[in-house]
Design goal:
Layout: H1 2-9, H2 17-24, H3 36-46, H4 53-58, H5 69-78, H6 83-101, H7 112-117, H8 119-128, H9 136-150, H10 158-184
Helix pairs in contact: 3-10, 6-8, 8-9, 9-10
Length: 192
């Protein structure tokens, strides 16, 4: 505990700054050694993203921010996770777990990763973001594509940068209209 506390308390020594480049998967500037074909593929992939791509690439993610930026971002995010809201999620999460585990009775072996742990986080996040059940595969797909683009030996390659840009385009094309609708007519959900 003491070691972890020291890391948390010492952003000057244990900065999250590296996460900005490691997690992002999109370059903040074009690689001068990138071929013209790869450059065109990347530029084509970002076409249609309904947000300012420069702002998206340069934005600070909460996992890559140090105090005081992290503190400011956390204060915004924490408003969506009040004890009342978390308590209200209980029945929904119980239903998701029950649905995931349906059909395992009597089986000699169960792969809990594919049966539960791959499905549960996606379903809970989808619920948090007011994504209808029929669209949950989209959340899973975007998550898988972003994870593949940001981890492993292919990370940072032009192909993975294109994959990341396409996933971000698809994600934002789905959510930006939802966010705009909530601005016009807020509800009691996390997006609002």
């Amino acid at each position: 505990f003491a070691d972890v506390q020291e890391v948390v308390d010492r952003p000057d020594l244990f900065s999250n700054e590296a996460m900005q480049k490691e997690v992002g998967g999109l370059p903040t500037e074009l690689d001068p050694n990138m071929t013209a074909e790869d450059t065109q593929r990347l530029l084509s992939a970002v076409t249609g993203i309904p947000v300012d791509i420069a702002e998206l690439v340069e934005s600070r993610m909460i996992v890559s921010a140090d105090p005081p930026k992290h503190t400011r971002l956390r204060k915004i995010v924490v408003r969506g996770f009040t004890p009342k809201r978390i308590d209200a999620m209980g029945p929904s999460i119980t239903k998701i777990v029950t649905d995931c585990l349906t059909g395992i009775d009597g089986r000699a072996q169960v792969d809990l990763v594919s049966t539960l742990t791959e499905r549960l986080p996606v379903a809970v996040i989808a619920d948090l973001l007011s994504v209808p059940e029929q669209d949950r595969p989209k959340i899973s797909d975007w998550s898988d594509r972003i994870a593949a683009a940001t981890h492993g030996p292919e990370r940072g390659t032009p192909a993975m940068q294109v994959q990341m840009a396409e996933a971000l385009r698809d994600f934002s094309t789905y959510f930006v209209p939802m966010i705009e609708a909530r601005r016009e007519s807020p509800t009691d959900d996390l997006i609002s």
